[in-house]
Design brief:
mainly alpha; elongated
Amino acid sequence: MKKFFTLCQKIAEYSGMTFLFVMTMIIFLQVFCRYVLNQALAWPEEMSRFFFIWLAYSGFAVVTKEENHLRIDLLIYFTKGKSREFLLTLCEFINLCFFAILVYLTWDMTSRVHDLDQRAFAFPYPIYITWAIMCFYCVICTVAALESFCNHFKKLITKG
């Protein structure tokens, strides 16, 4: 199970780096064509927007695994021992539920957009692929939240 969690983390990290690199190259191409060749291309702005969305979701998955996401933890810092571990476990359970709902909602939106057969404006790219990739990263977030919840739950049970 640990190998599966590590694999999901590596996928999020490396794909995020790839998205950032490709997005940067696409933007560089657009700047070069616009200002050096005086001929702007139609597709780079839209494509870089898709890569930016995927980059954000891959980053979302990475910080979820590392438990570096934004949260209000004032109460957690003022508690100690088993009550602190209970609060951390409760927070991770809420995260797990949130990510599970996100998986459902992004999958639902993916299937709806697929049924509409929407295409990108500048090139014939199916929009449902963007939603499917977002759903994939929500699944990775759910897996990371599940791992974190299990770790905190084990600590809660073993503390005495």
